[in-house]
Each structure stands twice: as C-alpha cells, then as structure tokens.
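Good morning,

Attaching, inline, the backbone tokens for the sequence recovery test we're adding to the shared suite. The designed sequence is right after.
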C-alpha cells in the first residue's frame, strides 16, 4: 500500500497505540462494523463521561451513590475489619470515599491502566485519609495481575462500581468475575454496582440526553481515530444513536453513517453505506436474579443486594 510507509514514519506508534490500531482495523472490517467501548476514554472522552454522570437523565451515578450512602452500615457489616479494598478501574473518587468513610479498611489498592491518573488519585486520597495505606497498581484489570505484597495477609474486598460490568459481553462479565475471584483469593468479598432493567423510556433518555453530551462522547471515538491513527472521519457525516435491545437486555450505542462514504486510515479504506452503523457500545441491564445467576456461575456466592427505593440501580455483595 502506497500510504503505509509515510504513515508509519509520521506516527511512531507505542504499544498501546498499535493495539488500538489493530482493534480499529479489525472492528471496521467486520459486518456489522464495531469498535470497543474501551476506546472512548482518552482525556476528552473521560471528561465527557464525567459530564454524563451529572446529566439529569443519567440516573446511574447519582443513584448508586445514594445506595452506597443510605446502605453504608449494611455494607460495612459484611466487610472484615482491616480489609484491603481493591478497586477495579479508578475513576472519580467520590464512590470509594463513601466506602472508606463508612468502613474500617486497612489499605486501598486502586487498579487502573492509566498510571498518571492513578498517581494523582492516590495522592489525593492519602491526603484525606492519612492513616490509610494506598498501593496503586498500574495494570489492565481485565487480565490477571498481582496484588501488592504489602496486603498479602489482609482480607480482600473487591470494588467494581458504576455498572462498568454492563459494558462487558455476558461471557466477558463471567470471565472478569472469575478472574477477580482468583486475584482476591479465598474468603474475599466483592461489592459491585449493577444497573437494572427498567422502563424503556428512562433507559432511552439516559443514553439520548437532551444536551447532546452522550452524542459527543460517542462521536469522540472517531475524533480519537483521526488524531491518533491519522484517520479522516468527517464527524458531521455520522450521527449518534442509542436504542434499547429488549431481547438482549442491553442499550446499544451506534454511530450511523449519514451517507455513502469512504474513510481512510493507516493506508486502508473502509466504505460505509448510507445508514450503516458502527456498534460502539453495549450497556447490559440485569435483573437482581439474572445478576445473581451470573455471579454464581462465576464462582461467587451472592450474599446481599440493595436497591434505591425506585428500583433503578443495584449494589451487590458477593462472597468467594
Ligand atoms: C461506564 N459505563 C457504565 C457507562 C454506561 O452507562 O454504560 C458508559 C456510558 N455510555 C453512554 N453513557 C454512559
């Protein structure tokens, strides 16, 4: 291909960028086209996601916070004193702060792929919880990783808030829960936030907000491909669409091509029909029973679950 050498020179790819490139090339060659939701979260995407969590239509974040706050004493009752709290993924610290205030943890281990972000987060928490030992781990938490030696003798509690599990395909969710159980070990506990199946209108509006932030969040992945992989996506030629797929219990986000067009990237071209979609995210919604079955099938014993009064969101405690 004539473009490839020039591009290879123009972009000196690090390992992460070339994995991104491989995934994008692979995903756009599929029928239907798809991109992994993990690529939403560059600096702009993370900022847009923070804005989503504050939208009036996006109920999950504030509802989960209310459950963690209102059910703090029930949650702390299942947590052994002096346990190490291992958080899978490190976003805003609001939720973990609630747990740290309400339960007697001996150590906090945030695990995230972004090392810079982790360090800033760890520093802020050390300042506000001076007696807490914080041991950040820079790792992809969807793959096996080692816990810090310092927490070897402590009981472990995993924390996976935000219904991030919902962005995994069911088989990936099962694999993640299994691997978390292996990493945390015997007698571990897990506190996990899971979005619930509900009225389709509420779900629809949560992913089609009137301010258009979710649309920007979705389209940003094309911007990222342009910037990091030298793509030439015209963002105005795609529209955001989020629908609820009732049979598969999931919100699907798509980017729909407004016209027939060809997009180039890394010396390759990808053609789109008018109306053709790129499936960019699934956000699975569970009933309490379906989540408990998933947890059991992954080697955990469901211990207790809590909901807000309107039954919008759930927090589950699992025991290894
Ligand atoms: C991070 N994750 C749980 C969000 C969700 O609701 O699935 C991501 C998101 N996508 C669109 N809005 C929010």
């Amino acid at each position: 291909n004539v473009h490839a050498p020039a591009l290879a020179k123009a972009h000196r790819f690090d390992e992460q960028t070339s994995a991104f490139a491989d995934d994008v090339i692979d995903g756009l060659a599929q029928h239907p086209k798809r991109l992994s939701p993990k690529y939403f979260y560059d600096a702009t995407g993370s900022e847009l996601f923070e804005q989503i969590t504050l939208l009036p239509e996006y109920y999950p974040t504030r509802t989960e916070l209310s459950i963690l706050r209102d059910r703090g004493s029930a949650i702390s009752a299942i947590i052994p004193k002096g346990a190490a709290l291992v958080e899978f993924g490190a976003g805003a610290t609001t939720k973990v702060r609630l747990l740290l205030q309400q339960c007697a943890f001996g150590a906090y281990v945030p695990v995230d792929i972004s090392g810079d972000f982790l360090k800033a987060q760890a520093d802020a928490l050390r300042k506000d919880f001076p007696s807490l030992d914080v041991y950040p781990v820079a790792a992809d938490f969807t793959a096996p990783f080692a816990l810090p030696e310092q927490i070897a003798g402590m009981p472990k509690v995993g924390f996976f808030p935000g219904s991030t599990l919902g962005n995994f395909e069911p088989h990936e969710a099962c694999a993640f829960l299994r691997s978390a159980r292996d990493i945390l070990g015997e007698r571990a506990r897990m506190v996990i936030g899971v979005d619930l199946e509900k009225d389709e209108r509420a779900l629809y509006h949560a992913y089609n907000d009137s301010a258009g932030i979710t649309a920007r969040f979705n389209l940003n992945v094309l911007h990222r491909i342009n910037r990091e992989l030298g793509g030439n996506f015209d963002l105005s030629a795609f529209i955001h669409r989020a629908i609820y797929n009732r049979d598969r219990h999931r919100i699907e986000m798509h980017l729909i091509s407004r016209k027939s067009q060809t997009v180039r990237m890394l010396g390759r071209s990808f053609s789109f029909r008018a109306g053709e979609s790129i499936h960019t995210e699934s956000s699975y919604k569970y009933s309490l029973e379906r989540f408990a079955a998933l947890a059991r099938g992954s080697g955990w014993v469901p211990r207790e679950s809590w909901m807000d009064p309107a039954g919008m969101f759930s927090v589950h405690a699992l025991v290894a």
